[in-house]
């Protein structure tokens, strides 16, 4: 039963990740005005002196929001979700 729950949570995590990204403002059309993503981008730009640093959380989230998640990222999300369910 625990493995079934782990598998379900792993799959649910992969399916939910794009919904969460869009929900906080990382969309295919760019960062949504007035969203949490916009606030994160503004803070990141201020901290770095004017731009978003390549490889930062904001840059990675926007990339995933715009282009989708790579298969390796999906595998990592699924494994993390499954592992977390086994710890509970």
From TrEMBL:
Q: Which Gene3D superfamilies match?
A: 6.10.110.10
| UniProt entry keywords in alphabetical sequence | Membrane, Transmembrane, Transmembrane helix
> Could you tell me the Gene Ontology terms of the biological process aspect for this record?
intrinsic apoptotic signaling pathway; release of cytochrome c from mitochondria
Subcellular location(s) per record: Membrane
Query: Which residue spans traverse the membrane?
Result: none
Grouped into one coarse class, the protein's main location is: membrane
- GO CC terms for this protein? mitochondrial membrane
Record's family? Belongs to the IFI6/IFI27 family.
Q: Per its record, how is this protein called by name? A: Interferon alpha-inducible protein 27-like protein 2A
Species of origin reads Pantherophis guttatus
Highest classification ranks of the organism: Eukaryota, Metazoa, Chordata, Craniata, Vertebrata
